[in-house]
Design a protein that fits this description.
heterodimer; A: alpha+beta; elongated; B: about 450 residues; alpha+beta; Thrombin, subunit H; six-stranded antiparallel beta barrel; 7 helices; disordered N terminus
Chain lengths: ~475, ~450
C-alpha cells in the first residue's frame, strides 16, 4: 500500500511543481516582480509562491506517513526548525562569517572546495543538529519513516528561507526564475534532509552506534549536496539556452533517486523491525567524536573562506612590496588591459592593475617610481600633484595617510568620464562622475602610488575593499 | 552681333539642365534638409586661460535663446522614415566664439539629440523647404562617416508612426562606367534656402597610399559645397552615395567633390535593422565583392547579437569576443596584450613620420621622451613578436572584441563564412563559450545570447 502511495503522491507532487513552473514560464518568462509597486507586497507574493511549493512538498511527506501519522504540530515545528536553522545560523554564517558570495566564484578550485566544505557541510551540520537533537529523542520518532519525514520537512523549511533571502535581494528576476529557484531548492534540500533523517533514524532501529550513524549521515549529506552543486554549476557554465529547464529536470531526477533509495531502504528496515517499536534509550549527552567532527568541518570552512577572502597575493621582491587583492580584481578584460600596459613616466612602473566588473565597480592600480628627494619633504601640493601625474586641479583635497608602516599623502579628486561608445549606444550619453583616491607613500629609494577609482555611486561601496588591500600591504625593506 | 552671346548662354544652361533632368526624380520630397535647435548663450567677463585659450569659466550669462541652425542634407531611404546622412552632419561640437575687445563669449550648444527635418512642400523643387519633422539618431558610424536617423515626430513635436514616406532606393556604386552622370542633390549654404541640384561626372574611385584614412570613395566634378554633406548622389535614379567632402579651394587646380559609396552605410543599416528592428533597404552582397570596394565589407560581414540575463530577461552590458576556433582563450588573451603594445609603437612611428615632434607624441601618449625615442629608433618591432601577432598584423583574422551596450546589443566585423568561437564575459555571471558558423551575407545575427548569474 505504501509503495503505491509514494508513487501516487510523488507523481502528484512532481507534476504540481512542474505544472507550477510551466504556468510561471507562460505567465512570467519576461515579467518580474518589479511590476508590483511596494516592497512589502512584493515580498508577500514572493513568500506566497515559495510557501505554496513547500506546502505541497510537506503534504507529500505527510501522506507517506499514513501508518502512524506524526502530529501535525510536530510537522509544523520541524518546518519552522528548518527555517530557523537557515535564518539564525546558515545565512549569518554564509553571509557574515564566511562571506561565501565574495570568493566562491573566483576560481574553480575555490568553487569545488567551497561547495563541499563550506556550503554543503554547513547545511548538513545544521540539518543534522535539527534532526538529531530536535526530533531524534522524541517518543513520536518511532518508525524509520519518521526520520525521513522530519528531515525532509526541516530541509523544506531551510530551502524556504534560503530562497526567500536570495530572491528578495534580486527583485529583477522573472517569475519563472523565481519559481525555478524555489522549486529546485525545495527538491534538493528536502532530499538531503530525508537521506540524513533516514541514516540518523536507522540508528534507532538497527541498534547501531548513534555517533557513527551521525557521522555517516553528515558525510553522505555533504557529498550528495556537494555533487549537486557542482553538476548544477556545470549546466550553467555550458551556457545552454534552456539551462533552467535542464537543471530543474535533472534536480528532480536526482532528488527523486535519493528519495527512492531512502524509501526502499526504509521499507526493508520497517519489514525487519515492524514488530518492534523503538525503545532505544536516547543518549542526550554530548558526544565527543561528533563534537570533533563538527569542529573539524567548521575549521575547514573557516580555512577555505579565509583563503578565499584574503584574495591572491601580489609579491614583488625587487621593490620589496607585497599585498593581497580580491580575486574579483584579477580576471581578464579586453577593455581594461590597454590602459595598464605602459608606465606613465620613464622611471615609473605599473606593478599591478585590475578592475572589478561587478558591484562595487572600481579599478585599482599600484605604481612604483624612483623617489625624487626634492618632492618628498615638500608641502607644496602642486609639486606633489605634478610628481604623481595628477592633472586634475579642481575639487581636490590632500590629506595624510598611513599604509603599512609607510607615511604618505592621499590626494582625493573627481573628474567627469566622457568616454562613451558613440556608435551603438547613443541614447544614454550621460557622463559619469569618477571619484579617485591617489595614495602616495614615500621611501628613501622608491615612491609607491596606489590609485582607487570608481564611479561616484559606487565609490563608497568599494572603499572597504580598497581599505582591505591597503591594510594587507607589507614592505620588506623600507 | 550682340544677340549671339545670350544665345550661347541659353544653349549651355538648357543643356546642363537637360543632362541633370535625366536623373532628377519626379518626387523630390525624400531629399531633405537637416538642421538642429541650438542654444545660443552670451556671457560677459569669461575667464580664459591666455596660454591654452581654454575657457576656465563662462562668466556672467547675459542672454540666451534658441535658434534653428542648418546642419546639412539627408535622404529618406525607407518608407518607415529612415534618413541616411553623414556622421559629421549629426555630430555637433560645442562651438564658442570669444570677442576679446568686448570681453564677450558666445557659446552654441545643441538643445537636444534630435535633428530638424525640412521637406520641400508640394513636391516643388523651387520652393523653400519647410520644417516638417524631427528625427532621432539611430546609428552612427564615425569611421565611414555615415549615420542613420529616424523621423519620430512632426513639426509640433507630436509623435508619428507613418509608414508611407516617399523614399529613394539605393543603387550599386561599383557598377558605374567612367564619365557616367551623377546628380547631386542637397542644401549647400551657398545655394540659399532652396534645394540645389547639380550634375557631374563619375571620375572613378579615390585611391591613395599616402592617405591614412579610408580611401575608395567616389570622385566627381559635380559642384558641391558645405551643406551638401549627407545629401544624395544619384545615378540612374538610385542613391549611390553620400556627398561628404570637397577639396579645399586653396589646393591648386579645379575642385573635386568626394562621395562616400552608399555601401559604407552597411554598418549603420545593420544596427538600425538588428538593434531596433527597423526595416532597412537591403544591399545585395554581390555589390561588395568587386575590386573597387576597398572597404572591409569586401570580405567581412557584420555579426550582431544581444546579451540577455536569463535571470531577469533583461539586456546586459558585457564583453564579447569572437575568435577563430583553433586558438584557446589564453592564446587570444596573450595575442591581445601584444597587439595593444604594438599599436602604440606603430602609432608613435606614424605620428613621427607625419611630422609630429617627439615632445608632442610624448605628451599625447603620456610617456617620457626617452621611451618614445626608443620606439622610433628600435630596428624592427617584429623580432620579439609571436608568429600569431605577425600574422594578425598582416591582416589575418584572430579575434574581434566589443562591448555590448545597455540594450545588450553588439556589432563586430568578422570574415564571411567562418567557423568561430563566441565568448561572453561579464563579472557576476558565468562565462559563455559558444561555437558559431558565420554566414556569407551582409550581416549575420547570433540572436539572443543568454548568460546566467553566478
Amino acid at each position: 500500500m505504501r509503495e503505491k502511495n509514494i508513487l501516487k503522491t510523488g507523481i502528484f507532487n512532481l507534476l504540481f511543481q512542474l505544472g507550477f513552473l510551466v504556468i510561471m514560464f507562460a505567465m512570467g518568462s519576461k515579467a518580474s516582480l518589479m511590476i508590483i509597486s511596494g516592497e512589502s507586497s512584493r515580498f508577500i507574493i514572493l513568500a506566497a509562491v515559495i510557501l505554496l511549493l513547500s506546502l505541497v512538498w510537506a503534504l507529500f511527506f505527510y501522506w507517506q506517513d499514513r501508518l502512524e501519522p506524526e502530529p501535525v504540530s510536530y510537522i509544523i515545528v520541524s518546518f519552522i526548525a528548518g527555517m530557523a536553522a537557515a535564518a539564525l545560523a546558515a545565512l549569518p554564517l554564509f553571509n557574515t562569517v564566511f562571506q561565501v558570495h565574495k570568493w566562491i566564484y573566483s576560481s574553480s578550485v575555490l568553487f569545488v572546495l567551497g561547495s563541499f566544505f563550506v556550503t554543503a557541510s554547513i547545511v548538513n551540520l545544521l540539518l543534522y543538529i535539527v534532526i538529531r537533537w530536535g526530533f531524534f529523542p522524541l517518543k513520536e520518532f518511532d518508525e524509520p519513516v519518521d526520520g525521513m519525514v522530519y528531515g525532509a520537512i526541516a530541509g523544506g523549511g531551510f530551502a524556504c528561507v534560503q530562497s526567500l533571502h536570495y530572491l528578495s535581494s534580486h527583485p529583477s528576476f522573472t517569475l519563472f526564475v523565481i519559481t525555478y529557484i524555489a522549486a529546485t531548492n525545495i527538491l534538493i534540500y528536502s532530499a538531503v534532509g530525508s537521506i540524513m533523517g533516514y541514516i540518523i533514524g536507522r540508528a534507532k532501529f538497527q541498534e547501531k552506534s548513534v555517533p557513527r550513524s551521525s557521522m555517516i549521515a553528515i558525510l553522505t549529506g555533504t557529498a550528495v549536496l556537494g555533487i549537486y552543486l557542482l553538476f548544477n554549476e556545470f549546466i550553467f557554465v555550458s551556457g545552454f539556452d534552456h539551462a533552467f529547464w535542464l537543471s530543474f529536470i535533472l534536480t528532480s531526477i536526482y532528488s527523486l533517486l535519493i528519495l527512492l533509495f531512502c524509501y526502499l531502504k526504509m521499507r526493508k528496515l520497517t519489514q525487519k523491525h515492524h514488530h518492534k517499536h523503538a525503545d532505544v534509550p536516547v543518549n542526550r549527552t554530548f558526544n565527543f567524536t561528533m563534537g570533533l567532527l563538527i569542529l573539524i568541518l567548521l575549521a575547514a570552512a573557516a580555512v577555505i573562506s579565509h583563503n578565499g577572502l584574503q584574495g591572491k597575493k601580489f609579491v614583488n621582491p625587487t621593490y620589496g612590496i607585497s599585498f593581497h587583492y580580491p580575486h574579483s580584481l584579477s580576471s581578464f578584460s579586453f577593455n581594461g588591459m590597454s590602459q595598464s600596459l605602459f608606465p606613465l613616466t620613464d622611471e615609473a612602473e605599473i606593478l599591478f592593475s585590475g578592475e572589478t566588473g561587478s558591484p562595487p565597480y572600481f579599478s585599482f592600480s599600484a605604481i612604483v617610481r624612483l623617489t625624487n628627494t626634492k618632492n618628498t619633504t615638500t608641502d607644496n601640493h602642486r609639486e606633489l600633484l605634478q610628481y604623481v601625474g595628477v592633472t586634475e586641479r579642481e575639487s581636490l583635497t590632500v590629506s595624510d595617510v598611513e599604509i603599512g608602516r609607510g607615511k604618505g599623502k592621499r590626494i582625493a579628486y573627481s573628474y567627469i568620464d566622457k568616454s562613451l561608445d558613440a556608435e551603438t549606444d547613443i541614447e544614454y550619453g550621460f557622463p559619469t562622475l569618477i571619484h579617485v583616491y591617489t595614495d602616495v607613500v614615500f621611501f628613501d629609494k622608491y615612491t609607491f602610488i596606489f590609485t582607487y577609482k570608481a564611479a561616484s555611486q559606487h565609490f563608497n561601496g568599494g572603499l572597504p575593499l580598497y581599505g582591505q588591500i591597503l591594510e594587507s600591504v607589507r614592505w620588506e625593506r623600507l | 552681333m550682340n544677340w549671339k552671346k545670350p544665345a550661347v548662354m541659353v544653349v549651355f544652361l538648357s543643356l546642363s539642365c537637360f543632362l541633370a533632368a535625366e536623373d532628377i526624380p519626379s518626387d523630390v520630397t525624400p531629399f531633405v534638409k537637416l538642421g538642429r535647435l541650438v542654444k545660443v548663450s552670451f556671457y560677459k567677463n569669461p575667464v580664459i586661460d591666455k596660454r591654452s585659450k581654454e575657457i576656465k569659466h563662462n562668466g556672467q550669462l547675459i542672454k540666451e535663446n534658441l535658434v534653428q541652425v542648418p546642419a546639412g542634407s539627408g535622404t529618406i531611404i525607407s518608407p518607415g522614415g529612415l534618413i541616411l546622412t553623414n556622421y559629421h552632419v549629426y555630430q555637433m561640437k560645442n562651438y564658442f566664439k570669444y570677442d576679446s575687445k568686448k570681453n564677450m563669449l558666445l557659446r552654441e550648444t545643441p538643445a537636444g539629440k534630435t535633428m530638424l527635418v525640412y521637406r520641400l512642400a508640394g513636391n516643388d523643387p523651387l520652393k523653400v523647404p519647410a520644417l516638417h519633422y524631427s528625427a532621432a539618431p539611430v546609428s552612427l558610424d564615425k569611421k565611414h562617416d555615415t549615420a542613420i536617423l529616424k523621423i519620430i515626430s512632426d513639426e509640433k513635436g507630436k509623435l508619428i508612426s507613418k509608414n508611407d514616406f516617399s523614399y529613394v532606393s539605393i543603387g550599386n556604386p561599383f557598377a558605374m562606367r567612367i564619365n557616367e552622370d551623377i546628380t547631386i542633390i542637397g542644401y549647400p549654404s551657398k545655394g540659399g534656402d532652396t534645394v540645389t541640384i547639380t550634375g557631374g561626372k563619375f571620375l572613378g574611385y579615390y585611391r591613395s597610399k599616402r592617405f591614412y584614412g579610408l580611401d575608395g570613395f567616389i570622385k566627381t566634378d559635380g559642384a558641391m559645397a558645405p551643406g551638401n554633406s549627407g545629401g544624395a548622389a544619384m545615378n540612374k535614379g538610385t542613391l549611390i552615395g553620400v556627398p561628404t567632402s570637397v577639396t579645399l579651394p586653396t589646393a591648386a587646380g579645379s575642385d573635386l567633390g568626394y562621395i562616400h559609396p552608399v555601401t559604407w552605410a552597411a554598418k549603420t543599416l545593420t544596427i538600425a535593422n538588428r538593434k531596433y528592428g527597423y526595416k532597412t533597404p537591403e544591399i545585395p552582397v554581390q555589390w561588395f565583392y568587386t575590386d573597387y570596394n576597398t572597404d572591409e565589407t569586401k570580405t567581412f560581414l557584420y555579426v550582431t547579437g544581444n546579451i540577455i540575463s536569463s535571470h531577469s530577461n533583461r539586456p546586459v552590458s558585457a564583453e564579447v569576443a569572437i575568435t577563430r576556433p583553433d586558438r584557446t582563450f589564453t592564446q587570444i588573451k596573450n595575442l591581445h596584450r601584444q597587439i595593444q603594445s604594438v599599436i602604440k609603437i606603430y602609432a608613435a612611428r606614424d605620428l613621427h613620420k607625419r611630422g609630429m615632434s617627439v615632445e608632442k607624441i610624448a605628451k599625447q601618449f603620456k610617456m617620457p621622451r626617452g621611451k618614445i625615442e626608443k620606439f622610433l629608433t628600435a630596428k624592427r618591432t617584429g623580432e620579439n613578436l609571436s608568429p600569431d601577432t605577425t600574422r594578425y598584423m598582416k591582416g589575418e583574422f584572430f579575434y574581434k572584441n566589443a562591448n555590448s551596450d545597455r540594450k545588450g546589443f553588439f556589432i563586430l566585423s568578422i570574415p564571411r563564412g567562418r567557423n568561430v568561437k563566441v565568448y561572453v564575459i561579464k563579472k557576476g555571471f558565468r562565462p559563455v563559450i559558444r561555437d558559431a558558423a558565420i554566414g556569407s551575407g551582409v550581416s549575420h545575427s547570433l540572436g539572443a545570447i543568454k548568460i546566467f548569474k553566478q
